[in-house]
Amino acid sequence: MNEDIHARAERLILKNHVEGIRPQEREWLDRHLEACSDCDRLASATERTLRSFCTVSVPVPPSLASRAQLRMYLRMEELQTRERGGWIFWISCALSWVLGIASAPYVWRGFEWAGRHIGVPDVVWEMGFGLWWALPALVATGILLIEKLGNGPQETR
Amino acid sequence: MAADDTKALARALRRRDPEVLDRLIEQYQYRLFRYLLYISGDRETAEDLFQETWIRVLDRGRQYDSKSRFETWLFAIARHLVIDLQRRKKPQSLDALIYPGQESAIDLTAKNSPSALDLITNRELEMSIQESLGRLPAIHREVLVLRFQEDMALEEIATLLGAPVSTVKSRLYRGLEGLRDLLERGKA
Predict the structure, then answer these.
(1) What is the pTM of this model?
(2) In a 3-state reduction of DSSP, which class is residue A145?
(3) Reported ipTM
(4) Chain B window 129-188: which residues touch A at a Cβ cutoff of 8 Å?
(5) Where are the alpha helices (DSSP H) in A19-36?
(6) Is the Cβ pair A50, B176 closer than 8 Å?
């Protein structure tokens, strides 16, 4: 028997356990193992290895689950508190935007008057008005970004 | 777990149902702990990461879309935590996890084992497996536990690892071959 045959047998022994082998391959392997004691020993050793590996039991610390459950309850409370805070934040944002829309014409006139009174170019007080208008959105975006970064990368599934 | 079950589970995770979460912790405590122990190689680390994993499950329950099995998603979270930990320990290289060259036995035994008889009868086998596993790279230990102890399909393992099936197979071949050689050498 040449080296290639033994190499094929060795490959099939592993393949049998890893992904399974086709009936023709099994037939060939069985015949080979009957004839070759070295490969047969290898097949038995592989079987033994897997049996040993699968029979090893890992003792679990007695309070492992209860500790995890306790930590999870604490985390749940924390998340609930945070979510309540989140609602207050969004309600404040909504109110601020409603007020912003309602007061925009008056604030525009206020900026216009102040700009003319101080004597700055129109573009300056217009930009000031734009900033005032965008400020709540900018703050909200900043807070959201900070929260997102704090949560870390997301699991894909 | 049937498709309906995973959908119900996804809904329960979204609303952070404490009863369902309690049940999941009980149900998966052994398998998750074993997986963490095999890939981290250390009992204390595995215990800490076990807690962290469930916190993540709670935090990110909304991301479970019920398309994959729950355990695949759970193990993926655990795996990310181990990788994050390794990065923090050795920020220069993620390869530390992949090819750690640990060269020491994995402590599979409990600190206070309830049964002395179990310890005696399994001692030799456990010692031998611990030593052999400790010499295998973590990525090989990982696929071995997923394939032969968790009985996961190759495609599922590939999804969990975010690697092609061919990579999973190649790690399994090498892992199994390595473990066999180490165990047989130990006997000789």
Answers:
(1) 0.73
(2) helix
(3) 0.76
(4) 129, 144, 147-149, 154, 159, 162, 169, 172-173, 176-177, 179-180, 183-184
(5) 23-35
(6) yes
State the CATH number of the domain containing residue B137: 1.10.1740.10
Cα–Cα dist A155/B56, whole Å: 9
- Find the helix packing angle between A23-35 and A3-18, rounded to 10°: 130
Q: Which tokens go with B155?
A: 């495609």
Q: Whole domain around residue B86: which residue ranges?
A: 3-187
CB B148 within 8 A of CB A53: yes
Q: How far apart are CA B74 and CA B89, in angstroms?
A: 23
- What are the extents of the domains in chain A? 3-55, 64-151
Q: SS3 for chain B, per residue?
A: CCHHHHHHHHHHHHCCCHHHHHHHHHHHHHHHHHHHHHHHCCHHHHHHHHHHHHHHHHHCHHHCCCCCCHHHHHHHHHHHHHHHHHHHHCCCCCHHHHCCCCCCCCCCCCCCCCCHHHHHHHHHHHHHHHHHHHHCCHHHHHHHHHHHHCCCCHHHHHHHHCCCHHHHHHHHHHHHHHHHHHHHHHHC
| CA distance linking residue B90 with residue A144, whole number of Å | 31
In the block, tokens 């998966």 appear at B28
DSSP A21: -
Q: What 3-state DSSP class applies to A139?
A: helix
DSSP state of A155: P
Alpha-carbon A27 to chain mean position: 46
Residues of A in contact with B30 (CB under 8 A): 58, 60
Look up residue B125 and give its two tokens: 């086998």
**Chain B residue numbers touching A73 (CB-CB < 8 A):** 18
> Could you read off the pLDDT of A50-96 as tens digits, one per residue?
998 888 888 899 899 999 999 999 999 988 888 777 778 788 878 88
Confidence of residue A143 (pLDDT cuts 50, 70, 90): confident
